[in-house]
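To the wet lab folks,

You asked to see what we're planning to order before we commit. Fair enough. Below is the target structure as tokens, and below that is the sequence we designed to fit it. If anything looks off to you, flag it before the synthesis order goes out.
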């Protein structure tokens, strides 16, 4: 039996409050296969970002465990990269684009030439060749988020975690970035987990969708997206299966199913 890239086993998460305990997650379990794209959806405040913090090793569950390739997660795992929603806060405005991308490579023990090549390759991957000497604030919002993605893939991660990565850009840019992360996933074979409030986005990008619901949150369903890859914004979104899946997931998030 193939070992999952990530295995979440009966995870609970509680936070102390002045009035007692806030029970956020209750017995959350699911496996993420190597190379799969998994979206986590649910109502606002259900605990999606809490689960993401547990997956990155920034917090420890109060019960259960998380394994990465069969090893119990006790800290941030090797081969993990993160893309956040607010690119204006994750990029250093006083550094050029190329220096922003090179930041996580400081511990990679690469030569100066190899670092420069890795930065250029990462910029090319996200369609930003020639922008390395610009500053983030000189670029559009969509381009800045592409820089964030380039910085994440510069370390050649095996797992990419994204928290509402396209929430701060316009609709057309969002579509472009969705296609970009699918390209990155395919080019590098990266296992990807994403928290999103956008049901359409989750259906378009994912192999599976994990639906969290309740107080405390449980896994209400794991929805397999049986729409073949490669996907396109025009064809996929007009597929009757896309509409059916979107309606099904939306109904669970809203508590209608």
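Sequence we intend to order:
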């Amino acid at each position: 039996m193939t070992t999952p890239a990530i295995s979440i086993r009966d995870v609970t998460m509680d936070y102390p409050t002045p009035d007692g305990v806030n029970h956020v997650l209750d017995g959350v379990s699911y496996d993420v296969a190597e190379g799969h794209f998994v979206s986590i959806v649910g109502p606002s405040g259900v605990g999606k970002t809490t689960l993401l913090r547990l997956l990155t090793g920034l917090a420890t569950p109060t019960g259960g465990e998380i394994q990465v390739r069969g090893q119990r997660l006790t800290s941030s795992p090797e081969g993990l990269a993160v893309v956040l929603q607010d690119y204006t806060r994750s990029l250093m405005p006083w550094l050029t684009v190329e220096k922003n991308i090179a930041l996580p490579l400081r511990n990679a023990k690469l030569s100066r030439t190899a670092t420069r090549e890795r930065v250029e390759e990462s910029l090319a991957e996200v369609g930003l060749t020639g922008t390395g000497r610009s500053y983030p604030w000189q670029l559009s919002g969509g381009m800045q988020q592409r820089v964030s993605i380039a910085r994440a893939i510069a370390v050649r991660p095996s797992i990419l975690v994204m928290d509402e990565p396209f929430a701060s850009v316009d609709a057309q840019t969002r579509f472009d970035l969705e296609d970009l992360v699918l390209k990155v996933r395919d080019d590098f074979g990266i296992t990807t987990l994403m928290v999103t409030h956008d049901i359409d986005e989750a259906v378009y990008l994912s192999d599976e969708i994990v639906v969290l619901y309740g107080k405390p949150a449980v896994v209400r369903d794991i929805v397999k997206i049986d729409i073949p890859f490669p996907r396109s914004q025009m064809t996929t979104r007009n597929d009757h299966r896309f509409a059916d899946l979107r309606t099904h997931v939306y109904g669970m998030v809203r508590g209608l199913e």
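Structural context that might help your review: Strands lie at 6-17, 20-32, 37-41, 63-68, 71-72, 80-83, 159-163, 191-195, 208-213, 218-224. The longest helix spans residues 171-188.

Thanks,
Computational group
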